[in-house]
Amino acid sequence: MAKLPIFEVLMLLGRPAAGKSEILEYLRNTDPFIQMKKFHIGEMDVIDDFPMLWAWFEEDSILSKKFAKPRLHTDDNGYFKYPYLWNLLIERIGLEYQKRIRDDSQYHQHTTTIVEFSRGSQHGGYFQAFEHLSDQILARAGVVYVQVSYAESLRKNRRRFNPQRPDSILEHSLEDEKMERLYQDDDWHELISASDSPNYLNFRGMQVPYTVFENEDDVTTQGGEALAKRLEETLGKLWDIQDHDK
Questions:
Q1: How far is CA 110 from CA 55, 81, 92, 149, 226, in A?
Q2: Among positive and negative, which fits the CA dihedral 208, 212, 218, 221?
Q3: How far apart are CA 128 and CA 108, in angstroms?
Q4: Which among 49, 142, 189, 203 could bridge 89 via Cys, Cβ 3.0 to 4.6 Å?
């Protein structure tokens, strides 16, 4: 069976509320043929560390409130008790991906894995996260960084807050103090500056192609044709970079 012209692994990175989840929501509502033709995305299989992280919060709340037991992952203010837990989440992403390709030998004949996460410099940044990504992911990945300023990230984070659905991918939010502490500083530009190529990140001897989706003007909230056009341009550029290596 011929392989479809699709990304195998697409990593979607950026500050909280940068527009990553809105991009995914747009793609989920796009005709599958157009999704493949315009964006090189096959059947989407999203591995996002937020549900894993939120499960820890819920478990800690149950332990503390229901059983009067010590919290395992977070303190009473909702911060991780141990910095290495950020890296554990990345390792979990790699484990989940390994299960996919183990259980379906034809997985990437039809599927694009979307890996989504945010990392601030305070908890190791993207440098540290990439060190914990599996070789299986890095060897297949292309990266899209959704670029917004901290001020724009903060604005959208406040706007999307829904206290009735704190576990929602599209409606979860952080308090301003947590946003400032965890995400004000972002090491993406240091990451790309450390590379010797304008199109690739270098990790463990592997070149990982990347491109940037500019979203300071918030086309992801606007949606429609403006989002479609910019997404097609961004993913088209990434596809050309990745295809050049083949």
A1: 30, 40, 23, 35, 27
A2: negative
A3: 27
A4: 49
> What domains lie within the chain, and their CATH numbers?
9-52+109-244 (3.40.50)
Q: Kindly report the backbone phi and psi dihedral angles of residue 15, in degrees, each rounded to the nearest multiple of 5, phi listed first.
A: -60, 160
**Would you say residue 1 has pLDDT above 50?**
no
Paired tokens of 195: 């590379």
Task: Give, in order, the Cα–Cα distances in Å from 79 to each of 91, 129, 165, 178.
Answer: 19, 18, 20, 8
pLDDT in tens, 144-160: 999 999 999 999 988 87
> In this predicted structure, which of 99-113, 121-135, 153-167, 186-200 has the lowest mean pLDDT?
153-167
User: What are residue 112's phi and psi, to 5 degrees?
Assistant: -105, 120
Question: Most distant CA pair in the chain: distance in Å?
Answer: 57
Which of 161, 174, 203, 219 minimizes the C-alpha distance to 11? Answer: 203
